[in-house]
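Researcher: We're teaching a course module on how sequence relates to structure. For the next exercise, students receive a sequence and then see the predicted structure as C-alpha cells, so they can try to spot secondary structure elements on their own. Here is the exercise chain.
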Amino acid sequence: MLELKKKVYINLHTRLILIMILTYLLNPTPGVSLADHDAPKKLEQEYTQKEKEKQITELLELGDSLAEAKDYNYALAAYEQVFLLDPNHRKASAKIDLLKKRMAHEGRDETGVVKAVYDEEAKERVRKLWVEVRNCLNKERFGQARFALEKILLLDPENQEAQKLYQDLKQKQFGKVS
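Model: And here is the predicted structure for the students to work with:
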C-alpha cells in the first residue's frame, strides 16, 4: 500500500482506478473523444444504472481520499470522471467547486497533472536525444550531434553536460565559441 499524508491509504484497487482515470484522460477510449459532445452519452449507455452508481461512488470516494491527501489535481480528475457517467451529477459538481475554492485558498492551480506529464515526456525525449548525440559522435557527424544537443537544451536549458558538449563541438567545428 502507498501511504499518503494524514495516514490516507490507497489500496491496489483504488490505485488501479486512478491509473485508469489518468490513462483515459491521456489516451481516450477509441470512438469517444473528449471533444465529442456525445462522449458522455456513449459511456453512459455502456453501464447499467447499478454499475453507474457503483462507479460514481468509487470515483467520489477516490476523489475524497485524494483531496484529503492534498492530491488536488488527481482528486479533480476523479470527480470530473463522474460526468462521463452522469453529466448532471450535482454532488460531483459541488465537490469540484469546493475543491477549487480550497485550491485557490491554498494558492494552488490545476496544472500539476499536466506539468507532471509534460516533465516526464520531456525527460524521455532528452534520454532519446542523448542516444542520438552519442550515435552521431561515434559516426563523427558533429553537425547532427550539435543539432540534437540544441534540442536537448530547448527541453532542458540548464543541462550543463549538454551546454559543455555543445560549446566543445561548436569550437571544434568552427574554431570559436560564442
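Model: If you want an answer key for the exercise: The CA atoms of residues 79 and 119 lie 24 Å apart. The longest helix spans residues 112-138.
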